[in-house]
Design brief:
By secondary structure, this protein is an alpha/beta fold. It has one domain (10-152): Response regulator (Rossmann fold). Helix content is 41%, strand content 14%. It has 5 helices and 4 strands; from the N terminus they run E-H-E-H-H-E-H-E-H. The protein has a 4-stranded parallel beta sheet with strand order 2-1-3-4, with helices on both faces.
Length: 155
């Protein structure tokens, strides 16, 4: 059985999408499913390529027992073929991802909050540490629900 591949996308790939990557990995670890999934994150912009996640992102994840060792990268057209699920942190990122991916892969792209009634995950970049805590609080239950859906679809 091949791994289910999941990509999380935000603007710069240093705040929300690596937070989502870490939270999702935490869910996988807790359920003993880590070997059944490949998880990554990317940004629609190129400003932070090669950088580690924001220190506040890493601090929040550490507080929840999650270690994340990743570097920012930009979404590429080949991500459409490579990933089974592409979850965008907001509607703007969803549109930008679809501009990069060939049209046949657009059905793989979903706003991350669509499973919980819709909306956008707020970008904490220009705020204080409490914004990062809020992003974690939003993503934690939502990504558990996404994991359930992925498992239902054979993941």
């Amino acid at each position: 059985m091949s791994a289910t591949r999941v990509l999380f996308v935000c603007l710069g790939n240093i705040c929300r999408s690596p937070m989502a990557e870490g939270v999702f990995l935490g869910h996988l670890q807790a359920r003993g499913l880590r070997d059944r999934f490949e998880v990554d994150s990317a940004g629609t912009g190129s400003w932070h390529i090669g950088e580690k996640p924001d220190r506040h992102t890493l601090a929040v994840l550490r507080c929840h027992g999650i270690h994340l060792d990743t570097r920012a990268r930009q979404v590429r057209s080949e991500d459409g073929e490579r990933f089974d699920w592409i979850l965008a942190m907001d509607h703007s990122n969803e549109r930008d991802v679809k501009r990069v991916l060939p049209a046949p892969y657009h059905p793989k792209v979903h706003p991350v909050l669509s499973i919980a009634g819709g909306g956008d995950v707020p970008d904490p970049y220009y705020g204080g540490p409490e914004g990062f805590d809020r992003v974690y609080e939003i993503l934690e239950p939502v990504l558990g629900a996404w994991l359930d859906r992925m498992i239902e679809h054979g993941g």
